[in-house]
Amino acid sequence: MSDIFVLAEHRQGELREVTLELLTLAGELGGNVVAVLLGSGVDDFATKIAGYADKVMVVDDPMFANFNAMAYQAALVELIKKDKPGLVLVGNTSQGVDLVGSLAVELEVPFTTDAVAVSMEGDKPVVTRQYYGGKINGTINFKDADTYVVGVREAAIPAGEGGKSGEVTKVDNPVTAEITARKFLEYVEAAIGDVDITQSTLLVSIGRGIREDKNMPMIEELAGLMGADISGSRAVVDAGWLPTDRQVGISGKTVKPKLYLALGISGAFQHVTGMKGSDLIVAVNKDPDAPIFQYADFGIVNDLLKVVPALIDKLKEIKG
Amino acid sequence: MNIVVCVKQVPDTSDPDTEVHIDSSGKGVDQSKFSFVINDADNFAVEEAILLKEKHGGEVTVINIGPEGANQVIRMALAKGGDGAIRLGDDKFAYSDVVATARLLQSALKDIQYDLVLTGCLASDDGYGAVGVTLAQILGVPHAAYAKTVEVVDDKKLKVGRELEGGLMEMNEIELPCVLTIQTGGNEPRYASFKGIREASKKEIKVMDLAATGLAEDQVGEAGSVAVMTEYSVPEVGELAEMLEGDPAETAGKLGNILKEKGLV
């Protein structure tokens, strides 16, 4: 098989874990694993990545100090046209999502996003994706092409141990014109609130199942009785019922409490990624097919609005 | 500033009664019991479009690809402040992949003078999260995905905050015209007023079929697609939780005892 390009991802001086996941996947698929690292002063990353790749191609230029989809695309188009890899893997992250569709269209090659599994049939990748909130899977069939671009979900494929020792090669930046249509300005850190849920021992976490703002007092009473902090899913934060710093998941916090009590949370992967490391997970959800039950230790299939008042009574009884 | 906002009608999968069953074709799902809603992220895109219009003037055009039943989500966007609407409706558009979908949207844009195109960042049904970015490349304009804050700098550029992992915001300056895919939570989608709903019922929804798009049959639908979902399957389910059975009091009782045994209460 021909080369598999893997786009390395980094941010604020840190190599992102998804890079090693993609390289591991590329190694499992066979073929020559070529890590493509666009950055500025990234020798440390190149050394680390070399353990997972047959070759590391580094384009070191201040243009790539911070992610800019247009600069990345301009460079990748040239590198891909030159080496013609059979497959290009990119993380389905806030960087990859900003890049994959436009990159593939410019290259005039097939692509798909958010793969949870990739295998090869000859020279062609076969991609499994999730549909309808993870309730069913679907298989993507590509039209024949010389190159395919696939965005792969973060944390879907565990990073292995590496074991390769690829050669690190510096490549001249193929982008000669300044990118002016889009400019990176700065990062703005997420606001810090009164409670740091990453340090909480007990979390009562709420999702869409709470339905209305007016149901919050019972959650507060339950959390108060337990001495727990309150966190929630994206939907609840979007609705303004909890502040942003209480959001658990990919775009929020990763938490590892002793108890994670998930109330009315369906368990979309974006959420689960942020809480699956909790010691004990208990889920209450009306939907017996909710993915959260695959991650929970104990489950109750019922409406949280019925279970929570009963649990409050029970806890009062226990406390005497 | 003239804004186009693309909206998709999706099954309400947040409703636990919405069961998803694969149909006999193997590449569709039984939609007979679905209730349909506007895609969540698109709802935030509509609100962003109307907020920008209220602040900076111009017109908002709503574009949808869907059957006649999708008119309900289009009308709701019109009721909130949209000025005109186009629905790309033709059975031949079914099974379009991301690229064919973006091509269809481009065909609807060809007669519109726009400064900004907004889409939701992700559809809750198929989850590609790629149409907006793909459309930008087809249109030949810059883009930014996961936009949560949008500020007009001047009539040539925007300042856009993209939401990254962990809630970090990446601020960018981007030239107009451009495409932004809007993340949820950056605004508070309004409810339509009765007056708005009444007025929206009188607004025209222009329907475009294949002939009206000017596209060939092999540029749309499955024929025009390069990455087609060909087969649905039921995922392997991991080991499930130990389920606590009974009425709410019984299950709460069992849970309370477990938490006590484990020293958590």
Topology:
The complex is a heterodimer of chains A (320) and B (265).
Chain A: E1 3-7, E2 10-11, E3 14-15, H1 18-29, E4 32-39, H2 43-50, E5 55-60, H3 69-83, E6 87-91, H4 100-107, E7 111-115, E8 117-121, E9 124-131, E10 136-142, E11 148-152, E12 167-170, E13 182-188, E14 202-206, H5 216-226, E15 229-232, H6 234-238, E16 259-263, H7 269-272, E17 280-285, E18 298-301, H8 304-319
Parallel strand pairs in A: 1-4, 1-6, 4-5, 5-12, 6-11, 7-11, 14-15, 14-16, 16-17, 17-18
Antiparallel strand pairs in A: 2-3, 8-9, 9-10
Chain B: E1 3-7, E2 9-11, E3 36-38, H1 40-56, E4 60-65, H2 71-80, E5 84-88, H3 98-109, E6 116-120, H4 131-139, E7 143-154, E8 157-163, E9 169-175, E10 178-182, H5 194-202, E11 205-208, H6 210-213, E12 227-233, E13 242-243, H7 248-261
CATH class of chain B: Alpha Beta
Which two chains form the greatest contact, residue counts included? Answer: A-B, 106 and 87 residues
Largest sheet of chain A: 7 strands, parallel
Count of DSSP-assigned helices of chain A: 8
Tell how many strands the DSSP assignment of chain B holds: 13
Whole-number tally of structural domains of chain B: 1
Structural class of chain B: alpha/beta
From the spread of the alpha carbons, the general shape of chain B counts as globular
Alpha carbon gyration radius of chain A: 22 Å
Q: What share of residues of chain B is helical?
A: 25-40%
- Radius of gyration over C-alpha positions of chain B, nearest whole angstrom: 21 Å
CATH topology tier name of the largest domain in chain A: Rossmann fold
What's the mean pLDDT score of chain A?
96
Q: Can you give the mean pLDDT of chain B?
A: 96
Which architecture of the largest domain in chain A does the CATH hierarchy give at level 2?
Answer: 3-Layer(aba) Sandwich
